[in-house]
Amino acid sequence: MVGYLGDSVFKDLVLPYLVELYAVVKPNHRIFHSDGTLQWIWKTICKEVDVLFSFDPNLDIDKIRQENKDIFLIGNIDPVKIMLEGKSEEIVKISWEKIRAGGKNFALGLGGELVSGTPEENIKVISYLQDEF
Predict the structure, then answer these.
(1) Is-contact 54 108, C-beta < 8 A?
(2) Where do the Uroporphyrinogen decarboxylase (URO-D) domain residues begin and end (predicted)?
(3) What residues does each domain of the chain span?
């Protein structure tokens, strides 16, 4: 839940431990995910930590890409507005927009947990798109 911390608190209290932790984890196994908005700390994560970055739907892929072209991104389909409440056509449209914006180091995924009650059809659509991409 580091998304609820400001950037300076994150840098002072969390980042040193993340760097130490990730130093002993294989690079392709370093995944950073935090529920909640990361709008205050995403730039620090992109600059300071070599991770696969799973991020929330409120962050703009294009802005992240401008900051760090090489970071591997995972996300950021909205689990409520798109997956729970959306229709399959909307999921396809949004997913392809995310895939195009994400570029070479990108995996399509949810920007949070799958919400209870998400229609099975929507889960099948996103699963199909993940397999195709």
Answers:
(1) no
(2) 3-125
(3) 2-132
